[in-house]
Amino acid sequence: MATMSIGKAWEEAVAFVAREATLLFPVALLFVALPGLILQEMTPPELAAWSLSPTASTMPAVPLSYWLGLIVAVLLVWFGSLTLFALALRPGISVGEALRLGLNRLPVLIGTALVVIGALMAAAMVLVTVMILLSLVSKPLAAGGGVLLGFGLVGLALFASIRLMLLNPVVIDGSAGVMLSLRQSWSLTRGHFLRLLAFILITLIVSAIASTAAQAIFGLIGGLIGGAEAARLIGGVAGAVISTAIQVYMLVMIARLYRQALAD
Questions:
Q1: C-alpha distances in angstroms, 82 versus 101, 164, 235, 244, 246?
Q2: Residue range 207-226, pLDDT digits in tens
Q3: SS (H, E, C) 108-119
Q4: Of 101, 98, 88, 99, which is closest to residue 19 (Cα–Cα)?
Q5: I need a surface site. Which of 20, 63, 146, 252 has the fewest CB within 10 A?
């Protein structure tokens, strides 16, 4: 088994983005950044405050329009990511062709998401059942076991997300259905878990630092120009733009890693 090279993927991604920036960034801004900004503006203040310290007993009531907006935003981001992968994996493809291909393959990606969510929910139900049985034996044992089981579920979700990191390229680059796409993406990451985990953690840290810095700097400028509301809006836009730019490089790198895995 050949070693997956993050460095090579980075070099190829930098060269590709420099060459195709006029195709990639408009799609990313329209279908990744914009839905997130709109959803952010739709988020009720109570929900935003609750998300900072969530407790099941105090979750505020959220209007149906927000949940519908969330679903639409997620679908647009998925569609946008598939389009970006189409542009990254098929040199010479037009934006229109990439958009059509992304739309055609979106139902498969939705299906894979539903399967994965269903599997995680089933695992959660098993863990809850175990916790209930433990509570019948000992309340302190159940409390400690609940914490451990919670960490276990988070760890399982993290493991699955890394093993399925190449799912989008698999979906957009082929014609397989839901289950075969899941099996192929799982197979391609075999033996590369730690390398991919390090890659995604570093990317997330860099993205968080850069977007936070941009939000703070441009928010300060916006506050000097138009007050608190302008600071929030301008800072949010700047943070989203920087985060989206980093995501473009990340997606192109994942496309290059997918090509490496295919050649493995």
A1: 8, 15, 28, 15, 16
A2: 999 999 988 998 888 888 87
A3: HHHHHHHHHHHH
A4: 88
A5: 63
